[in-house]
Structure formats: C-alpha cells, structure tokens
Amino acid sequence: MKAGKFLLPIIILIAATIYFSVFIVKEVNQAIVLQFGDPKRIISKPGINFKIPFIQNVVFLDKRILNLDTPPEEVIASDQKRLIVDAFARFQIIDPLKFYISVGNERVARSRLATIINSRIRNVLGQQELQTLLSEDRTKQMSLIQEGVNNEAENFGISIVDVRIKRADLPQANSDAIFRRMQTEREREAKEFRAKGAEMAVTITSTADKEVTVILADAQKKSEIMKGEGDGLKNKIFANAFGQDPEFFAFYRAMQAYQKALIGGETSMILSPDSEFFKFFGNIDQKVE
Length: 289
Description:
By secondary structure, the chain is α+β, with helices and mostly antiparallel strands. Helices cover 54% and strands 21% of the residues.
C-alpha cells in the first residue's frame, strides 16, 4: 500500500519530465535552446529534440522567406520634386544566433528593417531626378537599395532577398497642381484647334465661292457662245429658205408676226383693212408683190 502511494507521484514526475524535455522542430522553423537566457544549441533540421526540463527553454524562429510591408515614405528627389514611395521587402533569417542576440524576435526585426529600408530609399532616390525614378532606370536604383539594406541586415543574421516599390505617387497637393496644369494645357490646345478649324472653314468657303463664280461665269460664257452659234445657224437656215422660196418665207414671217401681235395680248391696235399687215387675210391665194 505504501509502495502504491509513492508510485503514482513518480509516474507523474517522469511523465512531466518527459513532456517538458521533448520538443518538436517543424520544417518551417529553426530553434535555439537557451539555458537561463544563454544560447546553448542551434537546431535547423526538423524532428524530435530534447532539452533539460525547467532549466532550458526553446525559442522558435521562422526559416521561410518572410514579407515586410514598410510604411509609405515621402522622398524629395534631386530636382526638389516630392514623391510618396510605398515599398516592400522579402527577407530570411539565415543566422538564428546572431538574430536572437541582435534583435531578439521577429517583431523587433521588422521594425528595425523598416527603418533601414526607408532610410536607404531616401538616401538612394534622393540623389536622382523624378523622371529617373519613374523610368525603367528605377530597377537599377532598387538594386542599390537592396544592396545597402542587405549590408546592414547582415548584422542581424538576416538576408534581404528582394526590395521592391509597390507604388510611387505624387503628394495630393502636387497631383492637384499637375492636374490643373494639364487641364489648362488641354484647354489651350482646344482653343488653338478651334481657331485653326475656323480659319480652315473660312478658307474652304472662300475657295468654294470663288470656284462657283468661275464655274458660273464659264457656263454663262459657253451659253452665250452656244446661243450665238444657234442664232447664227437659225439665220443661215432662214436665209437659205428665203433664197429658195421667198413667198413661203414671207408667209412664215407673217404668221409669226400674227402670233405675237394677236394671240394673248391686251394691247389694242387700229389698222386699215387694206394694210400691208393683213395682206394674207381674205385671199389666201394672194401673191407677194
């Protein structure tokens, strides 16, 4: 009975000792075994490991590539233009011991890295003009930023895999000023286009009016020529007809005179019955003298 009293506590003590002695390092982690805060072992491979219970403790660190979003930073370029730069970085803990001694944990490391990245961005981009920062040459500037950040991050046991700019915008005041300037420029161009269009319209209208006048004058000229040629041909025909049959020609001309004088007119004429005008009335067989 007395042996049973002591057996249960011993079993519990052994179980607790085993429980607090065993720890598992996952594939995504690396571990530092500490004894009263003093690093004793670095474990990089995954698996089951042991430590001295109640004396040693374990700090786990991520060995994957981690992302870091830095707060937006205002940068003044060499031409005194302002730019809001929003960058991000990717880093990896490559020396757990140095990392633990220098920064202690990931939260402090992120804060220190953000400060270093923003400082390096101001230093590198501040030596370039705004046009350079917005061109393809920006890739070269980002390489310089990454190199500088990596040199300082090595002191923390960290390797900088990449540094990139997510967004580079002008401050709101600058954007508004640029928008107003662009708007004014577009309005000026629109006025120039309208003025040129009005000038071209006047020129086209004047040219068209001139061409119409020339065409009408030419048509009138041709019409008069054709009319004259027709009158000449008509007179020639009449002359030939008169020469062939004078009596018929006289009769025909008399009929034309009757038509113009007597049909549809409101003018009254008083003539003698034996007037020469009526010589073809009464006796149709009358001969021309």
